[in-house]
Amino acid sequence: QVQLMESGGGLAEAGGSLRLSCSISGFHPTAMGWFRQAPGREREEVSCDNWNVDKTYHSPFYTDRVKGRFTISTDVAENRLYLQMDSLKPEDTGVYYCASVRAWGGSWCLVGNHLGQGTQVTVSS
Q1: pLDDT tens digits for 20-34?
Q2: Bridge partners (DSSP) listed for residue 99
Q3: Which residue of 10, 23, 85, 104 has the smallest Cβ count within 10 Å?
């Protein structure tokens, strides 16, 4: 049974940092991503990555809103996905979801069949 479980969300001040973690079970993906949904807005991609099995290649993608501030990473051995979020801004507030990715391009990625329950991130000004 596939299960994605996010952790690491919480309250941070503007300029601060948080690190999100996603525990993956039931499958071993080669493409995953982080998506977020802000209050009153549709879910959007934040960062996605795809890699080969031995992790000698990976191709991370970041939206312009987070580029240079967020870093996506993967621990293939532990089957975990991370999102390091630095220089947080109030507009980063939202529910962050870990998800499988079914397609991606140079500036976009699409949620696949598996989505976690989300973790709340709140950034105060």
Answers
A1: 999 999 999 999 999
A2: 33, 115
A3: 10
